[in-house]
Amino acid sequence: MDLMWPLIPQQIRISNITCDSFKISWDIDSRGQERITHYFIDLNKKENKKENKFKHKDVPTKLVAKAVPLPMTVRGHWFLSPRTEYTVAVQMAAKHPDGDYSVSQWSEVIEFCTADYSSVHLNQLLQKAEAIAGRMLPFTVFYRNQQREYFQQDRDAQCRLMLPAVKDNSGSHGSPISAKLEGIYFSCNTEFNTGQPPQDSPYGPYRFQIQADVLFNHNTNIYFGDFYCMYTSYHYIILVLAPDGSKGDVFCKGRLPVLDRSSNRLLTCTEGEDGSLSFHHAQDVILEVIYTEPVDLSLGTVSQISGHQLMSLSTVNAKKDPSCKICNISVGR
Question: Which of 111, 156, 188, 221 has the greatest number of CB atoms lying within 10 Å of its CB?
Answer without folding.
Answer: 188
